[in-house]
Specification:
Immunoglobulin-like; alpha/beta; 663 residues; elongated; 7-stranded parallel sheet; 11 helices; Rossmann fold
C-alpha cells in the first residue's frame, strides 16, 4: 500500500492568475521563459462548479497572472510577484471557490554517479530479457512516452522509432542537451537487431519524446503534469518518469488521468537511501521502482519502503547518450525504464481479463506478480523478471508461512485458522502454519481462533517463493460480574437498599440483601458497600474473563449519636448599680432546664469573677455582679456546660460575649 504524504516544497514556485478569456491547452518553450522560472508560481485548482467570472475575480483580488492552464485536470498555472509565493498561497486558500493551491515544485532527474565497472548491458541479462524476446520483442503500436530532458532525435539507436515529440520545458529545443533522457530512452526501447549499439528492453516498441525537464535536468510540476496528460491523450501506453520532487496534487491528478485512460505509469523511487516517498513514484497509480545491482542487492543509495512496488537493475546501466554516444549511468532513473520497457512488452501478451476495456491493470499485475524474490526488504514484490512476465518461464505457485502467537504473553497459539480466502491452514503446537500452492499475487490473510480477536494482514506472494506472515492475536475480553449479599453484622439479617459500587458501576441490594454488578471487565477492583445507619465497608475482588466473583459484606451499625446542647444566648442586663449576665441553654428540641453552666467574667481593669449555676425551666441562668466598675469592658465566657444525657456542641450557638459598662 502506498501512503501519499502531501509535503509542499519551497522550491521554485509558479504563481497563477487567470483572466479566463480563454484556456490555452498547452504551453510551449516560447510561452514559459527563463524569466518565468525566476518568478514565484502556484498551481491553483477551483471547485468544479466555479464560474469563469468567479475565478477571474479571485485572481484579481489575490493579484496573480495566468501563465497557462491544464484544463484536463482543472489546473491554472499562476505567476505572482517574486518572493510573495507563500503570502499569495494563503490568500488563495481564503477563497471558498479554491479547491487546492500549491507551489509549482521543481522536479529533477534522479541520477547517481556513473559506475563503469559492470559489463555492458548486464542489466538485460539480469532480468532475463533474451528469454523474454523469444516470446515478444514488443510492437511499434505500443508507445512508451519518455518524460525527461528530451531524446537525442538523431541517435542511430533511437531516431527511427521516435513517433512524436513535444517540449513543455523552458528549453529552446525538444532535443536532449543533457543526456539523461536519451540514456533512459535507450534502456526502455533502443532499436534491437540493427547491428549497432544496444537493445532496449522494449526493442520494437515506439518512443514518444516528451520534454518536461530543462537542459539543466530540472523542471516544474506543471510541465510534468502537462506532459503526462499530453502523452495520455496522444496514444501513450506507458509513461516513464525518471524524475522526482515534492508532492503535487496537480501531478497526482495528471497521473490518475493517465491511468484512467489505460496508461501504465512508471516512476523512479529516488536516490536518497530513504524510506520516505519521493513523488510522483509515491502515488498509488505509479509503479515505484527501486534500484538493484549485479548481485541483486539493493543499491545503497536507492530509496525503499512499503510504497515501493518493484526493483530493477540501476547500477552501472549501459545505454545511449547524446551525440550518438553510449555510456554508463546509475540511479533509480535507470531502473525505471527497465520496467517501462517490460510494461511495453507485456502489453503485447496480456488480454482484458477484467472486462474494463483497458490492459493497464493486467499489465501492472503481471509485472508485479512475476518478480523474482531476491530476499531484499523494502522493494515490494521483488526484482522484475521479463521472461516470466511475458510467459516464457512458468509462474510457479508460492506459499505463505508464519506463526500465530498470543498478543498478551507471546505464547504460541495452536489450532488457529489462517486463510487467504481460498486456502486454509491450522497452526500446530508451536503456533506455526503453512499455506501451500498459492498463486503469485496479493492476498488478504485472516487468522482466527475461538477466544481471540481476528487479525488480518496483506501479503505479496512471488513465484516459487515463501511469503512470511506472522500474527499476534489479542484475547477477547469477556466481561465478568460481582455478586454477593449485604447483611447486618449484629443479627445476620439482610440489609435492603444497601449500595455496592466498584467505583464505576453500582448495584443496590434487593429484599434478600443480594446484589449483582454486571459487565465488569477482567481486573482487580476495590468494592464498597454502604447504607445509612451503617458503617461502610470496602474489600478487594478480582474478576476474570466471563466469570462471576462472589463478595459478601457484613455491616456494623453506627453508634448512637448523643443528644447535644449549646448556649443559645449570652446577655448583659444592667439593673440599677448591679449587672446580670444571663445564659440560655437549648437543645434541638427546645430549652434545657437543669444544665450546669460555668461562667468566667473578666474586666478590663484586671478583675476576674467566676460563677456557676443551673438553668431553670426556661433554660436560663443568671449571674449577678454587684457594683461593677463603670466605663470598663467586660468579657463573659462560658467555661463549662454539663447535663446528664447531653453533650456540649461547641460548634453551635455562642460561648462568649463582651460589653462596655456605661452609666
Amino acid at each position: 500500500m502506498k501512503y501519499v504524504l502531501r509535503v509542499f516544497s519551497m522550491g521554485v514556485v509558479l504563481g497563477l492568475l487567470l483572466s479566463l478569456a480563454g484556456f490555452p491547452s498547452l504551453v510551449s518553450a516560447a510561452e514559459v521563459s527563463g524569466k518565468d522560472l525566476a518568478c514565484d508560481r502556484l498551481l491553483v485548482q477551483f471547485q468544479q462548479d466555479t464560474k469563469a467570472s468567479e475565478m477571474a475575480l479571485v485572481h484579481q483580488e489575490v493579484g496573480g497572472k495566468v501563465v497557462t492552464t491544464i484544463p484536463q485536470i482543472g489546473v491554472q498555472v499562476v505567476a505572482v510577484p517574486g518572493g510573495q509565493g507563500a503570502a499569495k498561497m494563503k490568500a488563495y486558500r481564503l477563497h471558498k471557490q479554491v479547491r487546492n493551491v500549491e507551489y509549482d515544485n521543481v522536479v529533477q532527474t534522479v541520477d547517481s554517479p556513473n559506475d563503469p565497472s559492470f559489463y555492458r548491458q548486464w542489466t538485460m541479462v539480469q532480468v532475463q530479457a533474451p528469454q523474454a524476446w523469444d516470446i515478444t520483442r514488443g510492437s511499434p503500436n505500443v508507445r512508451i512516452a519518455i518524460l525527461d530532458t528530451g531524446i537525442d532525435m538523431d541517435h542511430p539507436d533511437l531516431m527511427a522509432k521516435i513517433v512524436s515529440s513535444i517540449n513543455f520545458s523552458n528549453s529552446a529545443t525538444p532535443d536532449d542537451m543533457h543526456s539523461h533522457g536519451t540514456h533512459v530512452a535507450g534502456l526502455a526501447a533502443a532499436i534491437a537487431d540493427n547491428g549497432i549499439g544496444i537493445a532496449g528492453l522494449g526493442g520494437e516498441c515506439s518512443l514518444m519524446n516528451v520534454k518536461v525537464l530543462g537542459d539543466s535536468g530540472s523542471g516544474l510540476s506543471s510541465w510534468v503534469a502537462q506532459g503526462i496528460i499530453w502523452a495520455a491523450d496522444n496514444g501513450a501506453d506507458v509513461i516513464n518518469l525518471s524524475l522526482g520532487g515534492a508532492a503535487s496534487l496537480a501531478e497526482e491528478d495528471a497521473i490518475n488521468y493517465a491511468w484512467n485512460k489505460g496508461v501504465v505509469v512508471v516512476a523512479a523511487a529516488g536516490n536518497y537511501g530513504s524510506s520516505a516517498p519521493l513523488y510522483p513514484a509515491g502515488y498509488t497509480n505509479c509503479i515505484a521502482v527501486a534500484a538493484t545491482d549485479a548481485y541483486d542487492a539493493k543499491a545503497s543509495w536507492s530509496n525503499y519502503g512499503d510504497w515501493v512496488d518493484v526493483a530493477a537493475p540501476g547500477v552501472g546501466a549501459y545505454s545511449t547518450l547524446i551525440n550518438n554516444g553510449y555510456g554508463y549511468k546509475s540511479g533509480t532513473s535507470m531502473a525505471s525504464p527497465h520496467v517501462a520497457g517490460l510494461a511495453a512488452l507485456v502489453f503485447t501478451t496480456e488480454s482484458d481479463t477484467d472486462g474494463d476495456g483497458k490492459l493497464n491493470g493486467e499489465v501492472r499485475n503481471q509485472i508485479e506478480t512475476s518478480c523474482d524474490d531476491i530476499g531484499v526488504s523494502g522493494i515490494g514484490h521483488g526484482r522484475i523478471n521479463a521472461a516470466r512476465a511475458v510467459g516464457n518461464l512458468p509462474v510457479l505457485p508460492g506459499e505463505i508461512a508464519g506463526q500465530v502467537t498470543d498478543a498478551k504473553d507471546g505464547s504460541p497459539i495452536s489450532g488457529a485458522q489462517v486463510s487467504d480466502g481460498s486456502r486454509t491452514a491450522l497452526s500446530d503446537t508451536a503456533g506455526k502454519y503453512t499455506i501451500n500452492d498459492v498463486p503469485p499475487g496479493s492476498y488478504q490473510l485472516v487468522a482466527s481462533k475461538e477466544g481471540y480477536e481476528d487479525s488480518s494482514l496483506t501479503v505479496n506472494v512471488l513465484s516459487g517463493s515463501t511469503a512470511v506472515a506472522n500474527f499476534s492475536l489479542s484475547p477477547i475480553i469477556v466481561p465478568g460480574s460481582i455478586t454477593g449479599s449485604v447483611t447486618d453484622a449484629k443479627d445476620g439479617l439482610p440489609i435492603v437498599g444497601a449500595v455496592v459500587t466498584d467505583g464505576t458501576r453500582t448495584a443496590t441490594t434487593d429484599a434478600s440483601g443480594k446484589y449483582i454488578i454486571a459487565d465488569v471487565p477482567p481486573g482487580t477492583y476495590e468494592v464498597t458497600a454502604g447504607k445509612e445507619g451503617y458503617q461502610s465497608l470496602t474489600s478487594n475482588v478480582t474478576v476474570t474473563s466471563g466469570a462471576t466473583s462472589v463478595l459478601n459484606f457484613s455491616l456494623e451499625q453506627n453508634s448512637p449519636v448523643p443528644n447535644t446542647m449549646w448556649v443559645d444566648s449570652l446577655r448583659f442586663i444592667k439593673n440599677g448599680k448591679n449587672l446580670f449576665i444571663e445564659v440560655r441553654v437549648v437543645t434541638a428540641s427546645g430549652v434545657l432546664p437543669g444544665a450546669k453552666v460555668g461562667l468566667s467574667l473578666e474586666c478590663s481593669n484586671g478583675k476576674v469573677w467566676g460563677f456557676s449555676g443551673i438553668t431553670d425551666t426556661a433554660g436560663l441562668v443568671k449571674f449577678k455582679v454587684s457594683k461593677p466598675p463603670v466605663g470598663s469592658y467586660l468579657l463573659a465566657t462560658v467555661t463549662s456546660l454539663t447535663c446528664s444525657g447531653f453533650t456540649w456542641d461547641t460548634s453551635k450557638g455562642m460561648s462568649s460575649a463582651s460589653s462596655l459598662l456605661s452609666l
